[in-house]
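quick one before i forget lol
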Amino acid sequence: MRGHTLFRVFSIAAFLACYVTIMVGGNVIASGAGLGCSEWPACQGSQVIPPLTGAAAIEFSHRASAFILSVLVLALTVSALLFEAARPQLRRLCLAALVTVVLEAILGGVVVDSDLVVTIVLAHFAIATVLFALLILIALLANIRELPPRWKAWARSAIDGERSPRPSEPRAPSPEGRPVPGRAPAARARDLAAGIPGPGPGAGRS
């Protein structure tokens, strides 16, 4: 597998892992399982993997998905540094994502140690949202060359808008007997149907 292809795969995998981690984190809050593992980084005492039942199982699923996400972001960053030297913007975005995921992991421990103080929990979710946005952008930029041409054309029209010329209003022919330059094809067809001649062999020359 080529280096660029590997980077593309990691970008999509990290984006999907971040989505799953955020969904599982939301389930932790909704189910009231935030203290299912009362310590960090271990779950309970020296137990890293608790009995997978009840609140402990829900909280541990969030920690497991966050660990997988962290590994994927690290792999994404390493692959960017190795294979994307020609695209320094992507390298910087990946480094920013790596810093963000480390900060998020540390803050996750603070959330547990603080017994779920609301402001810290909200900060935890805010940083997760920033990380998700970074990974969406990285995945898009990493894979944009491989998008189908139709998708690229749609994106280009969405960004730039439709630039097709507007049909001009019918106007009288020029003194030389040819339509005014810039007439739309439909207007020229109407000129011909009405008997208005088009430009002659010497049109446009003084």
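fyi The two ends are 64 Å apart (CA to CA).
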